[in-house]
Amino acid sequence: MHQLILWLYSLAVWLATPLLLRKLRRRALTEPGYAVAVPERFGHYPPPMDSLSPSSETEADEQFIWIHAVSLGETRAAAILLKELRPLLPGMRLLLTHGTATGRAEGEKLLLPGDVQVWQPWDTPGAVRRFLRQFRPSIGILMETEIWPNLVAACRRRRIPLVLANARLNEKSRAGARRLGWLSRPAYAGLSAVWAQTEDDAARLRDVGAHVAGVFGNLKFDVVPSPALQAQGRAWRAASARPVVLLASSREGEEAMWLEVLKQKTPLAPASQSPTAINSGVSQSVQWLVVPRHPQRFDEVQRLCEAAGLRVSRRSQWTAQPDSADVWLGDSLGEMALYYGLAHVALLGGSFAPLGGQNLIEAAAGGCPVVMGPHTFNFAEAARLAIDAGAALRVADMAEGVAAAAALAQDPQRRRALSERCVAFTEEHRGAALDTALAVLQRLREAVDDRPD
């Protein structure tokens, strides 16, 4: 029965291929990275890559350790794991796969000589077969949430251990997996091991069929912000005439919410200007810094701010220091440590619209207190722990968030206390990266022992 279901699923995925290609073409208009190496998504690789792939006689410690990090957040988690994994496997070669352009761009920073980076294969039997035949990984490590039925089934047939690391599953995703249990349950059950972030994640994962072999915590607690970026941000913060409030990793719709709050709290422009504009000449109590989650939205967010009458200065245009403006726009990738160093307080993007929130741990590691909205279901445990530790505040909506962040930014004593709690909070929960790396090493040893002579 399962084989029939898998065949029907494979047919559906194959029929959806033209839709995938159309989506890639559209995304490439704003993010050119989606137009790069498209044949890789279907298991077709250029001839020079043959010399990078291991032969069947290659020693086990020289074969590929495959990590799949679909997007930016997962790639950053993979970077944390790699810092612990490489010393344990000094001869390892990294095979790094992604599904998004931002993930691939970030992943380039992790590569060493001999490593390979390609797109995740589209989940058809042919593409998956060609991918595994090309690279023959010793183990596959899926980061956080990515489960693909054909990929799992093919790894089982080839006796390649496939694990889910830093695993999380929220209630909405569990409900979806249960509705499609005829397809998802065998996929979860086919994983060699699952290492969950929290006990709640572990319970939900078991409920959909996964074998949970450990609860290690969240890898992202082991993040170490770049000292150079933090120092630059703090130097700019010290030079700012006003305390800096960051709208961090904002998602579509949240900037409009924020602007609407500012319109209500700031005198409007003269009648000769747009009736919905904010008077940019009015002195504001804080310096606003907005960093959108997705780079394709940088221009859009600038237009929104300017349509509201605000002067915008973009990070990409700064030289010695930020230019004077009503809003600083963070339009760079890989510099969140700088932005958290620059900010006195951060509003957590993704938590004011019903999107599940973004990762707050990086802010806390940088000593930046967080004000979050009501929607943090993607990081529910981290959000609860941060609130309990006094490192974050919860508010009901954007209006309360703006008020709370501005008040905190202008209260140096309270702000310093929360900043200290942020650092202590992250220190307390470190250790998942080493535990995960040791578990990977154990799975590799078990896989070698299980191989037929």
UniProtKB/TrEMBL annotation:
Pfam families: Glycos_transf_N. Pathway: Bacterial outer membrane biogenesis; LPS core biosynthesis. It is found in: Cell membrane. GO terms for cellular component: plasma membrane. The active site is at E74. GO terms for molecular function: Kdo transferase activity. GO terms for biological process: lipid A biosynthetic process; lipopolysaccharide core region biosynthetic process. The lineage of its organism: Bacteria, Pseudomonadati, Pseudomonadota, Betaproteobacteria, Burkholderiales. Residues 38-223 form the 3-deoxy-D-manno-octulosonic-acid transferase N-terminal domain. This is 3-deoxy-D-manno-octulosonic acid transferase. It is an enzyme of class 2 (transferase). Keywords: Cell membrane, Lipopolysaccharide biosynthesis, Membrane, Transferase. It comes from Acidovorax ebreus (strain TPSY). The record marks E144, K220 as: Transition state stabilizer. It comes from the Bacteria. Involved in lipopolysaccharide (LPS) biosynthesis. Catalyzes the transfer of 3-deoxy-D-manno-octulosonate (Kdo) residue(s) from CMP-Kdo to lipid IV(A), the tetraacyldisaccharide-1,4'-bisphosphate precursor of lipid A. Its EC number is 2.4.99.12. The keyword Transferase applies. Belongs to the glycosyltransferase group 1 family. It catalyses: lipid IVA (E. coli) + CMP-3-deoxy-beta-D-manno-octulosonate = alpha-Kdo-(2->6)-lipid IVA (E. coli) + CMP + H(+).
